[in-house]
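DM from R.C. (forwarded with permission)

"hey, sorry to bug you on a friday — could you get me a structure for this? deadline for the figure draft is monday and I only need the backbone to look sensible"
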Amino acid sequence: MTRLTWRLARPNILASLALLAALALYAVLTRRAMTADLDGSGLSACLTSGGDCLSLARDFTDKFNVVLNTHRLLLLVPLLIGMFWGGPLVAREIEQGTHRLAWTQSVSRGRWLATKLGIFLLGAAAVAAALTQLMTWWFTPIERVQDNFGRMNLDVFDFRGIVPVAYTVFAFALGAAAGAIFKRTVPAMVVTLVAYLPIKIGVQTLRDQYLAPLDVTYAFGTSSPRLGSGDWLLSSEVVNRGGEVLGSAGVSNPCQAMAGKAAAEACSVENGYRFVDTYQPLSRFWSFQLIESGIFVCLSVVVLAVATWWILRRTA
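My reply, with the result:
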């Protein structure tokens, strides 16, 4: 049974290895180009010295905007694995009737299911882990450029650390369960597509509340003390002495009509105008990774339990 399952998994594994090889080549070439530009433009030296690098950073992101945005496509990898690995896993066997042959050859339903789920799930998790390591290596030179590329950034967070593996396990579980229940490959793939994204997005909306966010206050017209720290900025508001919110970051200085910079600064101090930033610090990256991974692993266990019960009790 194990040998047969490995043979069935071989096309998926080979296709995934080919995709990883292509992505690795792309990562090597684009990282080399970006690293050369970081050094040649002086941006790397500027960041190291702690100078004002905003203009250089803007030029860098404008130049490599298309390249940097390609990482968003990789957020679909767990979904694709769930659809093309998990969806057909049980559904195809039931469609073709080959599951009955296995069950009549001294192979119990439990062993048949455990072997198929175990080997395919292990392969899917390994692919996700390899892709995560590749993307971590690719992003290392540029994550200092702006907070947009920091590990706590919403898009970057999703393929760093351990959450990509948890996403993949959950998507795979959805596909396998849908195949067991609907007994058809195409409907199983469609159900995986329809169910995975809303659940993932729903969990992501809770991310900023995994731990209570922190606040930092600083004078109006000055830079945030957390600037460049890689924190996840949730909000930035302008308040007066009484704590009344005047607007979000970027509003006009209420004292800009005052003649002279000194007078404007005195006006801001007199009225107590200041910024209040609410953020999740970079130091919580691994805490958030563990929390979100735990959520998806628990969901995966529930979904796989449903699939197991359905196959053992409801599948003829």
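R.C.: lifesaver. The mean pLDDT is 82.
me: no worries. Residues 2-41 form the longest helix (40 residues).
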